[in-house]
Amino acid sequence: QVQLVESGGGLVQAGGSLRLSCAASGRTFSNYVMGWFRQAPGKEREFVARIRWSGGSTSYADSVKGRFTISRDNAKNTVYLQMNSLKPEDTATYYCAAGIVTYDNWGQGTQVTVSS
């Protein structure tokens, strides 16, 4: 059974940085895509970034491109989201997700709050 555990959220001032972690367990993820999504109050969940576990290719939402970086540590089975130049509109619950064709597995989420 796949388990995804996020950590690293918190309160930060605008312009600051945070690094989110997603510890993955329960199987081999070599053929998986790992993604980060976020959901702000009253809004739909939206895609932030993804990385292919094998090969490491990445893609980003336009709203975070150039500010966020997704990466993975194979030895630790962990995916990271480095978030720089944070803006108040980045405030949301951030979720880690994993899947092969669709995102079938989700973490519990970690809250990120950016104050102005």
Question: How would you characterize the overall build of this protein?
Answer:
The protein contains no helices and eleven strands. The strands form two sheets. Strands 2, 4, 5, 6, 9, 10 and 11 form a seven-stranded mixed beta sheet that branches. A four-stranded antiparallel beta sheet has the order 1-3-8-7, with no helix packed on it. A hairpin with a 5-residue loop joins strand 5 and strand 6. It is globular and about 40 Å long. The mean pLDDT is 96.
Oligomer: single chain
Instruction: Encode the helix/strand succession as letters.
Output: EEEEEEEEEEE
Instruction: Tally the beta strands.
Output: 11
- Averaged pLDDT: 96
Radius of gyration: 13 Å
- Structural class call reads mainly beta
Helix content: under 10%
Strand content range = over 45%
Total of helices? 0
End-to-end CA span: 40 Å
Low-confidence stretches: none
- Please summarize the sheet with the most strands: 7 strands, mixed
How would you sum up the global shape?
A: globular
